[in-house]
UniProtKB/TrEMBL annotation:
PROSITE patterns: GIY_YIG (PS50164). Gene3D superfamilies: GIY-YIG endonuclease. This is Eco29kI family restriction endonuclease. Coiled coil: none annotated. Residues 272-295 have a biased composition (Acidic residues). One of its GO terms (molecular function) is endonuclease activity. Keywords: Endonuclease, Hydrolase, Nuclease. It comes from Goekera deserti.
Amino acid sequence: MVTAHAADFKLSITKALADQLAERLMPLVPHSLTDEALRELEARPGIYLLFHEGHRVYVGKAQQPLPTRLRNHWKKLRGRNGISIDDVSFVCLYVDEDLDAAAPERLLIRRYRAEGGVDGVPWNVNGFGNKDPGRNRDTSEVSSNHFDALYPANLDWPLKLAGGPQTVGSILKQVKEQLPYNLRYEKKTRASSLAYKELVDVPTEEVTLRELTSLILAKLPPAWQMTALPGYVILYGKNEELPSARAWWRNSGQSEGVELTTRTPQLGAASEIEEPNDLANPDEEQDEDDAPLDS
């Protein structure tokens, strides 16, 4: 019973921790997300905030070293249309491993959202940190407020490949390594293994994915298709008009050769997108076609 001489006391450890984290982050000055800045960070776990044009947009956690986690974001953001890496900055805190069990990033997300709603940390609810959803989700509509819909993958990203005749398989491996977004392609079938042994004469100068696609598909059997979805690109031996596709290239097998179709993607209603619980390996590809590729 609460009386004049007796009262309840409820201790909120999580609120106290969130308050202390926010207070420690507050005086830190955001630094541009650059390769040089990341090299200066210690290889320790921690939490961090991302800012876009000076506005806080994302709270993240790194169980792996902070530079590795942030470098993944640096790579991803550089390969997007509609956003400049020059407008992105960060602050971070190194945290003890014991603190990780308390999910400090979740506490901060809850605090910032209580203060500003979705606008408190908008990228935490628009799919920014999500991984490649895998083949089964390619047919799903992307929400209109999804990070990939707002900032689609740059299909004109410059690639520097070894010039001269190379197998399709070798080219795909190099492209996958150099792109700042995911390229997922069919690997497991016998037909694809044979197709990937076809030779392509690769230009010695820089070439974009858009330019390279026609050279690759011209060597693959008819009905093969390269599809540009908002945030990644896929290559499979099947013609599909996926709802969220921005463009696709097809080998018609006719005199027209490789045909390109572009369109406005079909997007779903705006929604909040839950991030995966395991944030240790951001943007790690969930590639179900990961059998060894015979190139």
